Amino acid sequence: MNVKLIPYLVMDGTAKEALDFYQKALDGKILFSQSFGEMPENPDFPLPESAKDRVSHATIQIGKSEMMFSDTFPGQPAQRGSQVTICLTTDDAEKSKQFFNALADGGQIQMPLQETFFSPAYGTVTDKFGVTFQIFTEGKQ
Fold this sequence. Notes:
Layout: E1 3-11, H1 15-25, E2 29-35, E3 55-62, E4 65-71, E5 84-90, H2 93-104, E6 108-114, E7 122-126, E8 132-137
Parallel strand pairs: 1-4, 5-8
Antiparallel strand pairs: 1-5, 2-3, 3-4, 6-7, 7-8
């Protein structure tokens, strides 16, 4: 089993600028970048035209480490100072479930652990200390 903790920066429309900044400032290499407009459409959450260029997910490599980025989905609140979360990544859905449930004990579930188009088990939870974790399970896409 493989487990990684990755800092995840959530911006309010400035993720592309932040991605470029950190890439240059920290000698990073962009591994992946996708806009909201490039994601599969979801009729339950129509995407405003003005948000299609926002970053839905991006990853840069810095040395042997990674940083991840995204912009908030239009309409989601963004508060400066709370935009850094930890992405706990594993390749085992059962381990993801174990981590998620343990972190949720005394905390608050933001998004239940569930299958998404990008992960067999993904969810977000804020633990009892106020630290937000994104639980991401790697899997066949």
